[in-house]
Amino acid sequence: QTVPEELQNGGGFGYVVAFRPLGTVSWMQTVVASPDAARYVFRNESLPPFSPYEVKVGVYNNKGEGSFSPVTVVYSAEEEPTRAPTTVLARSLSASDVEVSWAPPWENQHKGRIQGYEVRCWRHDEKEENAKRIRTVGNQTSTKVSNLRGNALYHLAVRAYNTAGTGPSSAAVNVTTKKPLSRSCQTSPRQVFVQIYQAQPFLFLFFFFFARFFPMWNRQSSTSVIETNKTSVELSLPFEEDYIIEIKPFSDGGDGSSSEQIRIPKISNAYARGSGSSTSSACTLSALSTIMISLTARSSL
């Protein structure tokens, strides 16, 4: 930082820049004869990249020299990394996320520091120059790439970077995202039919909500969850209460979205004997197999 004019204490004010390679004894000095100067460039074509120097700056005017600043260590300009990261691995986490990891390159640290890594990810039918880019900071050696297309082949490559630029890219690795879920369902007060289009076995997670309705000042509720991979499940419901049911499938590819909320109105004794009106709702779905949930009112509850 420059010295304010009110602290220069005389005419002919300037700076003395002293520097030496780290670990040496003798100082080199140069004079910067402008009170407004805020930098000095030392040029030496034989100077290795990222060389450490000790530097201190003093002041002078027509009356003589002042004191020097504390010594600090600065580095000559670094070069971009010259080697690529190694051992790049990628694995699919879900239909939209993959994780990529790598090992740092064997780098000559006298040429520069690695400040982070750039991960490039592009779909097989896309051009590499249009790849999604994610940058990490520091020595982090893994990251997650999100918002990808399900059941798609992706290529990923990693390269290190610093203030001078990015280094060479690793060899690309391939990963295929998991298959997404699609579903459809039809519902009525007594039965829920769920169909899933999926070639491989998977589980279904059934969210079953017991909701008791009281005046607002005295509202209570409880929730039960049933997880099953069977082709049907039967739920027993007590009389004189309303119910909300949601159905949510999941597999290795991740969770599907929940069905529309299915409201089961209070079941009277007359309804239990087979009389009364019936209501139904529907939500979109798709599938190879059918799962049926039978809703049965039992007086023992």
UniProtKB/TrEMBL annotation:
Fibronectin type-III domain span: 1-79, 84-180
One GO biological process term: axon guidance
Subcellular localization: Cell membrane
Domain of life: Eukaryota
Gene Ontology CC terms: axon; plasma membrane
Name the record gives this protein: CNTN4 protein
Keyword RNA-binding applies: no
Cited PANTHER family: CONTACTIN 3B-RELATED (PTHR44170:SF18), PROTEIN SIDEKICK (PTHR44170)
Broad class of where this protein is predominantly found: membrane
Keyword terms: Cell adhesion, Cell membrane, Disulfide bond, Glycoprotein, Lipoprotein, Membrane, Repeat, Signal
GO MF term list: cell-cell adhesion mediator activity
Gene3D superfamilies linked: Immunoglobulins
Entry keyword Glycoprotein: yes
